[in-house]
Predict the 3D structure of the following.
Amino acid sequence: MQRYKSIISYDGSGFFGYQVQPNKRTVQFELETALAKMHKGEHIKVFASGRTDAGVHAKGQVIHFDSPLPISEEKWEIALNSLLPQDISVLSVIKADSSFHARFDTVGKEYRYVLQLSKMRDPFQRNFSVHYPYDLNIAAMKEASCFFIGTHDFTSFCSAKTEVEDRIRTIETIDFLQDNDFLTLRFVGNGFLYNMVRILTGTLLEVGLGKRKPEEMPDILVKVDRRFAGKTAPAQGLYLWKVFY
């Protein structure tokens, strides 16, 4: 039995998230369906670095699985891509140590949130960015984002449905990348809670609109209460960009 590590990308528009759900189309379901075809119907469980929600995309999701098939790494890529739907792509497959775990071995992740700031919406971008035709004070957003850098309890910035009790996370970087009509918020940290990037983004957008002041951010963190942070930004702007090991 050999363990394999794979980097995959997917357009999350047509999925109810990554994780298998009854009677729902998910990324994990499609991956395990393709592997079952290669293993004559045998179920091969796939483990990922983490879940993504419905509508959320991935540029560099990492998975692992075990297989007894004596197939080269290159042929794994070819075989899986031939069996997977067009909205999932296997970028690489390599042999991994038997102790490797896609989820538990992560030391950090990078997420990106893409906003389209043009006054006129682009219908071809509707699933891949969030149209936000409002004047934003990006300098104020950058000032507010500085308060999130470092190690904090991010309870105020995660969904009330978050299951984990330890909500202390470290954010290393929040960058603002501007390219013509697009603004991308880049978050790098040791881990992110359920909806954390989307809530941080929603709160920073409220700062950009003048609805909140940058200096309010430390108080929101201290309150450890979801009700005090901003709205959850829509799913389609979010990308799991890279996973670090």
Summary: Residues 2-96 form a domain with the Alpha-Beta Plaits fold (CATH 3.30.70.580). The chain has two domains: 2-96, 108-244. DSSP finds five helices and ten strands in the chain.
